[in-house]
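Encode chain A's predicted structure.
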Amino acid sequence: MDTVHHSTGSASAWDDSATQSAWKKLFTYAVAGQIIWPAVCVGGFVLMILVGRWSMWVMLPVVVYALYRSFLQRQYIVAAVQARRILKVYPWQTHKTPESGIGQIPGAKLGDVWLAFPNPDRPGDGVHIILHGHARSAWWRRRLGRGYETEKTAQVAEIWFAGDPRFAGVIAVPGPKRLFLLYQLKGRNARTDGERSVSPGALERARRAGVRVSV
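Encoded structure for chain A:
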């Protein structure tokens, strides 16, 4: 599939008020979850004690899931803060029908969903970046890498990307909506996957965006 990409016009994605609104929504949900899920967990335990053993069959799965989300929620807050730093440095680029797939690339496990974006220093080369799975990746994972068109996959026929796929970036659907942080795993060699060199300017930009680089 052909991919067409161009800047949406702003010097950085953060200059767009709609981007700021989308990020505030992302951050608000992350902070709210940090309050709500622990409260659900504690409330479930209290209810099991007050009501009796029979309530465990109903409440225990709820408590376990709430405990899981309580520990996970901090990662959402960290991801939202990192996304903001990236959005303040990089502009949005729009990508029509970007290449995506499931597994079958170096470093991908069975079931890993990935996207490919142009190398900023060598636009003719694509760079694969994996969507690392957690609860908030589910919406994207159900729509990418299918290899055929459905009503759901049509929702990601155009993707906005801000960042450098060799390090990290933020994806969204037009609006922007559904902001999601992408990143290369630590220890990955930034000179692989079609990237034979990383320019000093690209490294400096990544550092300004708060990305740890080791090239």
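Helices lie at 17-51, 56-87, 138-141, 200-208.
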